[in-house]
Amino acid sequence: MPAIPSKSKTNDVITPNFITTVFTPEEEDKIAEMAFKIQNQKPKHKIRDELKLTAEHIAKIRKACILGHSAKSIADAFNVSIPYVLQQKRLYNPRRYLKKPICLVEKSLMAQQMKKEGMSIDLISEHLGLDLRMTRKLLELKNSEYLEQQILPWEVVLRNLRSERYVEDPIWKDDTVKYKLIPLIASGRAEIRQMIGKSKKAWKAKNITSKKEKTFEKEKLFEKEKTFENSKAN
Fold first, then answer.
1. DSSP secondary structure letters along 182-195
2. Confidence of residue 160 (pLDDT cuts 50, 70, 90)
3. Looking at the whole model, is its pTM more than 0.90?
């Protein structure tokens, strides 16, 4: 009978013949030299696109990055490499250069400045991109003195928002304490919400009354027609 193989207590790992984990001293020196070179060498790909570009082209590329165009489209348009465009996109991030939207409180301050200069409501609404009803409401809003003092003149604000160059704060003066603005603007917004809510309620009530009046008139006409028909029949 063949002998039964005995189970070995030690788990011996069998290594294949083609794997060699032991290096000679010469091989170890070579590996160390290669590792040192890899660690200290600079990347081979150097971005040299700016050397062949004019200052005008560089400005246009940066502007395209700010506007949010894709790296491939910019690279194709200006005949530059995609790594260079990606480098510029990291520096000129569109989120950093995004134009600040004006809230209704800021628009009310600007509208009040325009009214003091004797501008008509039509012109004010045109400048601020609002309808006449909203412009009238914003002119009635009572803003705090600090907001009135710290906001820039309306023409400067519009110029800053429409300019091609980046403006850090296009609405408020440099010496403005920003944490003071937050509660004041919040209270102004709450007041505007109340004004809009009241006007909506009034508009709904007006519509309901007008509908009721119309139905009442229709009922009256119907009754008149009925009485006329009855009189004819008699």
1. HHHHHHHHHHHHHH
2. confident
3. no
